[in-house]
Predict the 3D structure of the following.
Amino acid sequence: MATVSMPSLENFDCDGDQSSVGLRWQKWKRALQIYLDAAGIENSDKRKAVLLHFGGIGLQEIFYNLPGADVTDNENSYDIAIEKLDDYFTPRQSKVYERHLFRLLKQENGEKFEKFLIRLRHQAAKCQFSTSLEEQLVDQITEKCLSTDLRKKILAMGDTASLNTIIAEANSLETIERQMSEFNEKPLASTSGIINAVATRKNKRQNQKCTRCGLEDHGKQHQCKAENVICHNCKKLGHYARCCFHNRNFTSKTKNQHLGSA
């Protein structure tokens, strides 16, 4: 039977930020427990040896200086080691204080609901809520979530609101909010096309030759210099001879007569 290669654990960081060492210890201890179960290690002394091996030199120094931590030939040696390290890394707090910290938790701007829920669950585990855990989570979500729509839905559900229902509603609302945001971020191509079309028509109008003087430097809305000039061809007021309609009509008729005679 082929053996499965088990990845090793990183050494526990004893010297990092001391304000979060308790949380780091809980996460590392969970990873160790998963490793021990997956590897099928059941003997208490062997479990303790694996704990100290993967814990690293820093953890070993702390462990061997804790009174009563190092016991051998005892069926509870691993549990005793864990208990002593728990007391060292996570000093016991009163449930009143832990519940105070729980009540301070709120969903931060830009934080996804799932992350907020994870933080609530982690702190709630220290509060000894026991059978009222779900109710406490629902109350805190209702009061400290960012979404007004979610709060309205929870209040509308009343006492029938379950944690699973609220989680589903929160995820659905976040998905809709993200989709709406993507809609709003799309450029309005039609608007820019209209603007370009208007500008093009405006330029075309500006580039058209004036029918009075033949120049392109002004539109119909501007006064033309030929407006008060008498044409030398037709003797009428309002255009230069080069733009005379009479002259163009005469030329056109002459061409047609030549074509007809040919």
